[in-house]
Amino acid sequence: MAKSLVHFVTPLHENTKRDYVARVTAADKSECATIAKQWGKEYWDGARKNGYGGYRYDGRWAPVAAQLIDYYGLKAGSRVLDIGCGKGFLLYEMQKILPELKVTGLDISGYALENAKDEVKDRLDEGCATALPYKDDSFDLVISLMTLHNLPIYDLQKALSEIERVKRGDAYLYVESYRNEREKMNLLYWQLTCESIFSVKEWHWVFEQFDYSGDYEFAFFE
């Protein structure tokens, strides 16, 4: 079963300001969600209503990278896979700290990969979390941030099984969740791509049912 609740990204998440009501009332949210789920330019670098509103490198992932390296005891030659790596900013920061780290990223968005950080672009693959193109026991650490909740539960099971298959060491997931009705409503207002809208208890059930053995962290919308 899942191991430990960790707090690598929560400070960064809590530092982002969000107007939940405006998100759901300022535009046709169903249209925005349809655009977002194409994972193209509009999602990454278009209007905020359709996604990130411009996902550019600004160094914000450096503290998270340092914590991951320290917590999991990564060293020269360690192999790391980031599922849903986007433009590769986190992997870039990790390799910047530990140049001999062997990083690999996977994302479904061809646009994100085409616009990835040049320093790691050749280490990024286009693909899906449900069918990882890597051999068994390939990675010392498998991470996935703000990605797996975008899968319906039947694909979530496949993705968690794939993580268990390719890791030979640790794993860490960061997914959206809620602890009360206010957080649930804010999540519903804010999300564009989330398919598995689960409470903390439901995520624990998923981890147990699908034999996920790594660490986890939740993004709450307070």
What does this structure look like?
The chain is globular. β1 (79-83), α6 and β2 form a beta-alpha-beta unit. The protein has a single domain (10-30, 60-219), classed as Rossmann fold (3-Layer(aba) Sandwich). By secondary structure, it is α/β, with parallel strands linked by helices. It has a 6-stranded parallel sheet with strand order 3-2-1-4-5-6. Helix content is 37%, strand content 16%. α5 packs across α6.
Strand fraction equals 15-25%
- According to DSSP, the number of beta strands is 6
Number of domains: 1
Can you identify the CATH superfamily? Vaccinia Virus protein VP39
**Oligomer category:** single chain
Q: Using only CA atoms, what is the Rg? A: 17 Å
Order of helices and strands: HHHHHEHEHEEHEHHE
Helix tally?
Answer: 10
Low-pLDDT stretches: none
CATH architecture label: 3-Layer(aba) Sandwich
For this structure, the CATH topology is Rossmann fold
The top-level CATH class is: Alpha Beta
The global form is: globular
Largest sheet: 6 strands, parallel
Distance between the termini: 27 Å
What structural category do the secondary elements indicate?
A: alpha/beta
Strand order of the largest sheet: 3-2-1-4-5-6
- How helical, in percent, are the residues? 25-40%
Query: Could you report the average pLDDT, rounded to the nearest whole number?
Result: 96
